[in-house]
Amino acid sequence: xxxxxxxxxxxxxxxxxxxxxxxxxxxxxxxxxxxxxxxxxxxxxxxxxxxxxxxxxxxxxxxxxxxxxxxxxxxxxxxxxxxxxxxxxxxxxxxxxxxxxxxxxxxxxxxxxxxxxxxxxxxxxxxxxxxxxxxxxxxxxxxxxxxxxxxxxxxxxxxxxxxxxxxxxxxxxxxxxxxxxxxxxxxxxxxxxxxxxxxxxxxxxxxxxxxxxxxxxxxxxxxxxxxxxxxxxxxxxxxxxxxxxxxxxxxxxxxxxxxxxxxxxxxxxxxxxxxxxxxxxxxxxxxxxxxxxxxxxxxxxxxxxxxxxxxxxxxxxxxxxxxxxxxxxxxxxxxxxxxxxxxxxxxxxxxxxxxxxxxxxxxxxxxxxxxxxxxxxxxxxxxxxxx
Length: 387
Description:
The chain is an alpha+beta fold. The protein contains 12 helices and 8 strands. Strand 2 and strand 3 form a beta hairpin.
């Protein structure tokens, strides 16, 4: 593969770099899993939208720049280069946004995408239920048609960003007599709708990054359904493809982690070299991050030429989630006992956010579809093996 940028792409990179360097907050924002940090990140989303940088692949009239996927990758490289804030609205801009582009009506695009771009509406993801985690076909929460509304009853759990978010997108069983992936509808609803109860779920770090949501006769207009009634499974699989494939985790994120890991190793080389395996692990981390970036450029080029993401998105998801965890495990091994310290501890030194990053990386093999399920998809749909 020969990777060369056009003059237009180089000019785009220069424009992105100049804007980010002039606008990225000089002080780190608080965690968006806290009330104050959430609003700080919402304000950053609003700042991004002033330059139409919220999601550069969207049309200009909807808050984007009409860029292709190669330019999106360039934007992500520059975004992570300056360590810009994490995206509190990633469920919206990276997952629901592309799904709306593909399946939404023109009215739905005009209604939802501009507010998503500005951060006015922050979106939560509502897939999992008790008894229906990675197996979304087991969803039981019902959305029963009543005239021009659906009446929703049931429960969602592990809803990302739902504690402070404004809207939820999720999959609901609109045909109560259906089984498995049949009879499901993709519905969008405000989290302030009467009958909704949101209960925070604490993460390992004590912050509420997830929530369980209870629906008690919640009425949602039929116009909030995305696509046809009962067609939710195919739409959700498209969204899951975005999540497991290119959009949720750009390669620049892992290249930035690999770069930080190299710096950590060099700063602690005397102690780290007592275990030769650590140097090899650092080198492997860099190589894998670069390989993932090149593979993503190849995929983006194929999509630009008219191809589609299929079950191979499962291979992407397994690769980046396990690579992320391995990089953080290597960092903790380099730090030794200091890895257990919080960044503000008197003797923390260069521990940075490695512990917090490690705790988050352990979830990577579960969210976006557990890796065990992804291996089944690869075996059955890519290799043709029996169920």
